[in-house]
Amino acid sequence: MNYVVIKCGGSVFDALPESFYENIVKLHENGEWQPIIVHGGGPLIGSFLEKLGVETTFVNGLRVTTNEVLDIVEMALSGLMNKQIVRKLMTSGGSGYGISGVDGALLRAVPTSEAASLGYVGEVESVNTEIINQIINQGFIPVISPLGIDKVGQRYNINADMAASSIAQALGAKLCFISDISGIYVEKDGKKVTLHQIGKQRIEELIKDNVIQGGMVPKVQSALKALAHNVPEVSIVNGLEVDGLIQFMNGRAVGTRITLDKETRYV
Ligand SMILES: Nc1ncnc2c1ncn2[C@@H]1O[C@H](COP(=O)(O)OP(=O)(O)O)[C@@H](O)[C@H]1O
Ligand SMILES: CC(=O)N[C@@H](CCC(=O)OP(=O)(O)O)C(=O)O
């Protein structure tokens, strides 16, 4: 089976055109590729927290997660966001099956090494691919929310890029990050340009120079980890680009392709 993990960022979710879901359904129907959706929902969590008057902070793109924040993360992601995507697939003629990383311990998690400052933020220790394959064998497109659980039943908030990367690693899947930008951009001759391709070394320099920041940091780190562990291809694609996902699936140049080698190409 050829798997593709499509990570759908909260940044672009509200603006995604219907054709985005139609393309995923078409891909599924063609039968050559099995799509698996992993979604985020950072802005939705942010708006819930704001309404409830709970302050939120980020360290290196990761949300500091107290027990109170964890409840809201679970409601927003495993509730509203997850089911919204299932419904959108359905209205596009497909069938999605929503599941959280907590269910069946799909995402077995451990706290990050920075638990003292991040709280209940988790890292994926293992992925139960059997559950994913059972959902697939029933003819569904899995839709996974990025919460995890440890061996004693403690929940964790997992960055959705990291969750997608771990799932892609476990399945040997291609990985596509759908976001609100056309890829990684840098300043060149006073202008913002999007990179066509970028390698590990340049990514590390750009993080150090603060050119890659915020939510882009866990995204590129997750991409590099995926490439080092069984994932053949990773790209960042703008969800608003018509047929961007289809172009990625057809191996055409779209967004920014991330590689482990040194090459950097400008669009
Ligand atoms: N060098 C960079 N190139 C592109 N985007 C960047 C860069 N540095 C930081 N970003 C930010 O990363 C954001 C995408 O990450 P994030 O907000 O976590 O999106 P998503 O919800 O899609 O995962 C962009 O909207 C942009 O503001
Ligand atoms: C630990 C951590 O930061 N978790 C994220 C989970 C959602 C997410 O990653 O959503 P996006 O893909 O839209 O950014 C958060 O709480 O925002």
Automatic annotation (TrEMBL):
Gene3D superfamilies: Acetylglutamate kinase-like. One of its GO terms (biological process) is L-arginine biosynthetic process via ornithine. InterPro entries: AceGlu_kinase-like_sf, AcgluKinase_fam, ArgB, Asp/Glu/Uridylate_kinase, Glu/AcGlu_kinase. Keywords: Amino-acid biosynthesis, Arginine biosynthesis, ATP-binding, Cytoplasm, Kinase, Nucleotide-binding, Transferase. It is an enzyme of class 2 (transferase). It is found in: Cytoplasm. It catalyses: N-acetyl-L-glutamate + ATP = N-acetyl-L-glutamyl 5-phosphate + ADP. SUPFAM superfamilies: Carbamate kinase-like. Pathway: Amino-acid biosynthesis; L-arginine biosynthesis; N(2)-acetyl-L-ornithine from L-glutamate: step 2/4. One of its GO terms (molecular function) is acetylglutamate kinase activity. Substrate binds at G41, G42, R63, N157. Residues 3-238 form the Aspartate/glutamate/uridylate kinase domain. The keyword Transferase applies. Its main location: cytoplasm. The record marks K7, K219 as: Transition state stabilizer. GO terms for cellular component: cytoplasm. Its EC number is 2.7.2.8. It holds the Pfam family AA_kinase. Belongs to the acetylglutamate kinase family. ArgB subfamily. HAMAP family: ArgB (MF_00082). Catalyzes the ATP-dependent phosphorylation of N-acetyl-L-glutamate. PANTHER family: N-ACETYLGLUTAMATE SYNTHASE, N-ACETYLGLUTAMATE SYNTHASE, MITOCHONDRIAL. This is Acetylglutamate kinase. It comes from Aquibacillus halophilus.
